[in-house]
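dumping the sequnces here before i forget
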Amino acid sequence: MSIEERLKELGVELLPPPKPVASYVPVVVSGRVAFLAGQGAIVDGEVMYPGHVGAEVTIDQANEAARRCGLQALAALKEELGSLDRVSRIVNLTVYVSSAPGFTQQPVVANGASDLLIEVFGEAGRHARTAVGVPELPLNLCVEVSVIAEVD
Amino acid sequence: MSIEERLKELGVELLPPPKPVASYVPVVVSGRVAFLAGQGAIVDGEVMYPGHVGAEVTIDQANEAARRCGLQALAALKEELGSLDRVSRIVNLTVYVSSAPGFTQQPVVANGASDLLIEVFGEAGRHARTAVGVPELPLNLCVEVSVIAEVD
Amino acid sequence: MSIEERLKELGVELLPPPKPVASYVPVVVSGRVAFLAGQGAIVDGEVMYPGHVGAEVTIDQANEAARRCGLQALAALKEELGSLDRVSRIVNLTVYVSSAPGFTQQPVVANGASDLLIEVFGEAGRHARTAVGVPELPLNLCVEVSVIAEVD
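..and the predicted 3d for all of it:
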């Protein structure tokens, strides 16, 4: 089953990825490695769940935003590569969680992106990952996800 | 001298690496590059020196925790590769230090991991590095270390 | 036109890069990928605009510091590679902005480095990028920039 078919089976629709908010590009492929710009969850031009997790934003909301970041990463890869079937492996995620003081469950937030990628790619979706707290993110995002993938 | 012999000479014993606390894997090898999941110092299932450096945690304690992160990274690489002799170079470290307000000696903390890797691998252990402060880390870790290595 | 000629045309002079402040090296090349140590803006041995953006440091100052980080990255690459003409692509930037509470314009700061690299390398200077806020940086830097480049 192709990744496109798998996305349909999951009922997942990829929207066009948001345009970068500054002087950079969404994806750079060097050799067989694709580096993606950091993704923040944007829906209809609005930041999804702005604020700090553990304060204005709940863990469940931030997990959902992280899932959305994963979807946007897929959309960016598809736009760059033509087809997600060219992605042979998700390699690494760095997940930055805007964290209220004392909030230490960054991995639960990050699972939103990780689980989505594993649902879509199966074993090839399993990646190394680092999750950390940060005090502020661009546009007051609650989570930002940086993805490295392997391409054929 | 093999890396395993070097570890014995240093009196360093690698314990089985802690299991990832969420939906990811400890190491992904893509081409000749190994990306490791972020390591936090865990001893006998307990976080080593939880808290913020410059407040509950001293620089020396955090340096020791960073060294432990380096050891865990070696254990993860050994489990993935079979032998550390397949590691041809330590390429890059990103070190996230849970920092109390005003704490700016992140490099001293990060040296705990860097120095360990240079002790073990010699010149091949010298790496590029970025050290930054963060407000919170998963499990209230005082330091988290992300490693990229080159493999044969 | 060579990159060296382009630098002259832009009136940009590369000074010798600052020495690493700890146990690491400025650049590691693995395969065709160069990983650079995190750059903080240092001028004549002094930190340029120390402090937090949105408090003691303005956005314009931090943007200027980020540009300086980009220049230092070029100087480090030139020292490692002999010539910047061996750089075939700027691949990825991670930009850590020391952020006062409520400061969310990290991308504007990061553009200082991004725009410099695009001025120098043109299309080959366009990179993927992640910009995040952090609470503290080494030496009280206002911004730290981590660069990955592709080399011939």
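The helical segments of chain C are 3-9, 59-81, 106-121.
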